[in-house]
Amino acid sequence: MTRDLKSLTEREFDLVVVGGGIAGVCIAWDAALRGLSVALIERDDFSGATSAHSLKFVHGGIRYLQHADIPRVRESCHERSAFLRIAPHLVHPLAVVIPAYGHGIQGKGALFAAFRVLSLLTLDRNRGIADPERQIPTGRILSRAECLRLFPEMARQDLTGAGLFHDGQMYSPPRLVISILRSAIESGAVTANYCEVRGFLESAEGRVGGVQAVDTLSGDPFEVRAKLVVNAAGPFAEELLVRSGLRQRRAIPLSRDLAIVVRRLFEPDMALAVQTKYRDPDALISRGNRHLFVVPWREYTLIGVNSKVYTGNPSELEVPEEEVQGFVDEFNETQRGPGIRLEDVSTVNAGLLPFGENASEATDLSFGKRSVVIDHAGNGGPDGLVTVMSVRYTTGRSVAQRAVDLALGKLEMQPQPCATTTTPAFGGDFERFEGLFSEARRRCPTTMADAVVRQLCHNYGSAYPRVLELVETDPALGRTVGESNVLLAEVVHAVRDEMALKLSDVVLRRTDLGAGADPGDEALAVCAERMGSELGWTPEDRQREIDEVKVGYPNWPRGGVGP
Asked: Is 307 left (phi over 0), alpha (psi -120 to 50) or beta?
């Protein structure tokens, strides 16, 4: 997996994909599997924007029951099952607890009815998932005593119990993107990061015939010729259309979705839904106001999602301190026990997604419900260009399938079935995760801690030997970086085999080093020194890279943060 710009310019491709988030990499993989020649270019790093900054849920559709949106329930369940099948190292079931109050619409009876309906609508949710530990069980009801044993903080006079259901959780959204990207490359796709598309090429017939791009690391311009361009740049897709003169202004509303990372708040490995003061204007059947989710993730807790209408430039997204403080206050209003403070927030995850129609200052928000696939030839624009925007990470694979179906038709090629619901993503070709861990434990040095071996299995799946071979060649690479479970070998592997070109690529996306909190000056220095020796960085280069990473973490006092 190398960055080869020469290969991008040497021939005409069937398809060039713009954007290396979850939708873009799924399009590249699906198209390559179906026999198309594919190029993919990303202006920053793969999974560097919205795809990395999520609540790490793969939603199965339960929340769409209240909208009576059965197609969306079915699609979400189908996509959750697909990710559980194809990426067993990176997606796993997670229990979610929803408190029940009284005996009306917010009571246990309503939850029980919802679970029964959901079970009937998703009878095929475990199809093709052989490992019982990876299957999604039917939702059930917990008694009041069971609730309080799990979450004493729920104590309230009218608490009658809770509903317990399971959804999907990602171990690492960026690693899932890398896994699928690697699958696309193994299937023949040519890819490159840090290449920004500045405009479209026009063919002799007046069609879009490729893209004009620039290598943002060197400043060198280049062209990629293709029969069809798929603009899958997420919230930046319309920016590209405006910059290219195809639209006067952005037309698709955007939501700024925010989740925060704090120290572990609860002991159980279960997510907890807590009710906010805001309502869902689209709900036909409502248990009350919207929920926030308090989600265990490794040694941290994720809290989200806070959403607002975003009208600014997508490339200039920032979350000011007062917005984070407002979300902390919103969460604390839902709690009966001790709350959290601003300084407890170790990381802020924020991204932009297609939204519903809302006034700019609205608080009871209508969310985006369908992903966007636009054939510009049928909408007054040029032929040879398709724009794709996924409404959620969960639907990245399904919107990719729609885009490739459209591409095959436009290219007048023989229809081919999509195989990305059943083909293991790179590293996902194994039966049971615990069996993979046992195998890796036997192969890894006895001095390597179980936690290190386990995270190797999660991040690389059955491809973990590629990292371990570096340790076997150079035992010094078997040391961990700082107090983390990340091996120096992973840093080297990221540079040599995963197209990591900047320190942030390794710290935030290729490894676990900075996923939950600033890893600290010492760890960053060690990582920068090792990357620098691979990439020829000067001392000034290393310091600049460190500074760029640190600016992404909160700069408020950090009392009580972390495990």
From this structure: beta
